[in-house]
Amino acid sequence: MKRRTFIGRHVRLGQTALHTALLAGTGLTLFPLLVMVGMAAKDPAQIYARFWNWPAPIRWENFAFGLRVTVKYLFNSLAVSGATCVLTLVVALFAAYAFSVLRFRGQRSFFAAIIALMMVPGILTLVPLFLTVRQLGLLNSYAGLVWPQVAASLPIAIFLMKHFFDEIPRDLFDTARIDGAREWQILRHVVLPLSMPIVSTVAIINVLGSWNNYVWPLLVVRDEALRTIPLGLAFLDTEFYLRLRPGMSMAAYTMASIPMVLFFLFAMKTFIKGMTSGAIKG
Amino acid sequence: MGRAMRTRIAWIYLLPAFALLGIFAYWPFLHAFKLALYRSDGLGLNRFVGFQNFIDLYRDPLFWHGFKVLGLFAIGLPLQILGPFIGAKLIHGVRSQRAAFFYRAVLVIPVVIPMMTGILIWRDFYGPEGAVNRLLEAAGLEMLKTTWLGSTSTVIPAIIFMGVPWLGGINMLLFLAGFINIPKSLYEAARLDGASSWAIVRQVEMPLLLPQFRIVSILCCLGLIQSYEGILVLTAGGPANATLVPGLYLFKNCFEFGRLGYASTIGLVLFALCLVLTFLNMTFLRRRQP
């Protein structure tokens, strides 16, 4: 009995220490974001004189301004990331199916040729890729934003999906073929329903990548109307009238962050699983 | 269905992927090698110069300076690798499922905030009237106030510090997945042997999480070599080139100085560096595995 209580106390003590450390960690993580929202709710005088105080009164007009300036960037980001994600998934699904389920001459070499691309860093191809896109006349267009990002995400997408498909029992395909199913029907009705975990993993990696991409839109986009969130935010405080109004910039950053955070909070389980599964196999 | 037919279907399924990769991946990759042999401004000028770019690069003090800067930024790597491990270890130890879920969610939030938001708010925080100086003021440490991004001695620590508290992110999730996969029986056996908590970390958890350590460290290293967006927005390489990493030097050569061939040459050197690191990472693991 005595020993038991000793262990119990030991565990409780450990738990207290854990919670203290984690609360400090989460606090430090959230602190910059809280400062951002706090500044966003203040006018310049409030920021200057009462930086650490609770915003009183709250300057709601800052948030209205933030929404107004970022809404078109949000729309562009949504369009670009959405299109990039869907196109990557469709193209990769077919390719992975061919590599995993179908048989053809040179299969291994062609798969190796795709895997090899994962070793090529984006920084090496940045300059020639820009030249290619310019030559194709795709500068300053959605196509110029989307297609190169699709191509950049294909190798890892095909790799992850192929290995996932490899685990599906081969009998399923044989049965379906005997039943007279065409290959695309098998892909659509057998493979796809079984592959939702890997599809969401690829989708999440893809959307996080394109949502955060700054350099590529910076090179491709000329018109203000085509700016995505990172680009729009980065150009925001080149606007003269925002220089002396940090609250308004902060409100714009806040509004631009909300969609992804909301999505994360709603789909947290899938999100967290998607970010880790498939990434590590030994 | 005949064999020939199935081969044809396979090719139809692969066509979109290889068409896209051909245009936007394989061709640019090959073009990068070609460009490195030319003096090119991307417009009219396009003259073959052989290995002159490589020679110029070898003699370019700014290029070598870039690697020194990279080395200084690398001081932050242990934080980026061990931090998420500690974060995962702490969360793994929490008994209450609910609390663990909460901590994990909060520590992942920085991943879903646009990276640009993080960069821009920190740029503001480091300003003369920014949050960092005000915090020092409030703590009575006014003598420490400075323009953090404007001085060569503070700019790199300031940029590394943006990752505070280094516990979370995708890397933490990778470690956590590893922790969850460690069989409970191993812990019990270790406890029965009277192993201390530290011994369990050293002799059970760290060896079993070697794959995670390996992937996180290679991703951090490759990321360090390749990423310059943050620096581009925060300091554009300044002050006095104190943050001019090779990646940013590449970017500037191409899009500011109009030296595309030279930029491509830098790209090839960085590519080689990435290959060497990946190779070392692979052989290191193979030797460590029983």
Question: How does this model look, in words?
Answer:
The complex is a heterodimer of chains A (282) and B (290). Chain A has 282 residues and is mostly helical. Chain A has two domains: 2-31; 61-276, Orthogonal Bundle (MetI-like fold). Chain A is built from 13 helices and no strands. The model of chain A is unreliable at 1-10 (pLDDT under 50). Chain B is mostly helical. Chain B has a single domain (62-288), classed as MetI-like fold (Orthogonal Bundle). Chain B has 15 helices and two strands. In chain B, strands 1-2 form a two-stranded antiparallel sheet. In chain B, helix 4 (77-93) runs antiparallel to helix 5 and helix 14 (246-255) packs antiparallel against helix 15. The model of chain B has no long low-confidence stretch (mean pLDDT 91). The chains are: A mainly alpha (282), B mainly alpha (290). At the A-B interface, helix 1, helix 3, helix 4, helix 5 and helix 6 of A face helix 1, helix 4, helix 5, helix 6 and helix 7 of B.
Please tag this protein with its features.
heterodimer; A: 282 residues; mainly alpha; MetI-like fold; 2 domains; disordered N terminus; B: 290 residues; 72% helix; globular
Summed up:
The complex is a heterodimer of chains A (282) and B (290). By secondary structure, chain A is mainly α.
